[in-house]
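Researcher: Here's my situation. A collaborator sent me these components and asked whether they could plausibly form a single complex. I don't have experimental data yet, so a predicted model of the whole assembly would be a useful starting point for our discussion.
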Amino acid sequence: MKIGQVTGTVVSTIHLPIITGRRMLLVDLLDIAGEATGDYVIAIDTVDAGAGETVLILDEGTGARQVLDEPEAPIRAVVVGIVDEVSVGQ
Amino acid sequence: MHLARVRGTVVASTITPGLEGTRLLILQPLDRRLQPRGGAVVAADAVTMAGPDELVFYVTSREAAVAMPDTFVPVDHAVIGIVDAVNEVES
């Protein structure tokens, strides 16, 4: 899993049926210091994450299908948690 | 999933079994500011509606094949939606 910050949403009308009714979040990936790495991912929200929140991203298809409870979903990235705190050893 | 701009199409009359008739698009992957990032890739069009210059989102790896009508196909990038808007949110 990866840690990211919600920085936007993606709106789409034409898409595969699996996307219908789901929120797509634009998430900037963060490094160990909590700084943006420059990389990002569009992830399906499963935890009602809000703007600016630090979130936990699962970027693996089989796990994503399990989280969504959709065995046929062509989805790889899902937001699976809202991070309260990250502590890194010195 | 990531954002990309449709730059063109690919026609291959000789193609591996399973991909006959599949629409192939040339995608320029984009960063979150919608600026080009890295080299172009060829993606299958799972929504069959993506046109030139459209902003789309795509999946990679095994999920690209799962997006296709027949899921046991050799596809590594697939367009699964057309983007209407990318909204920046303030924290």
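Model: Some features of this prediction you could bring to your collaborator: Residues 2-82 of chain A form a domain with the OB fold (Dihydrolipoamide Acetyltransferase, E2P) fold (CATH 2.40.50.220). The helical segments of chain A are 61-68.
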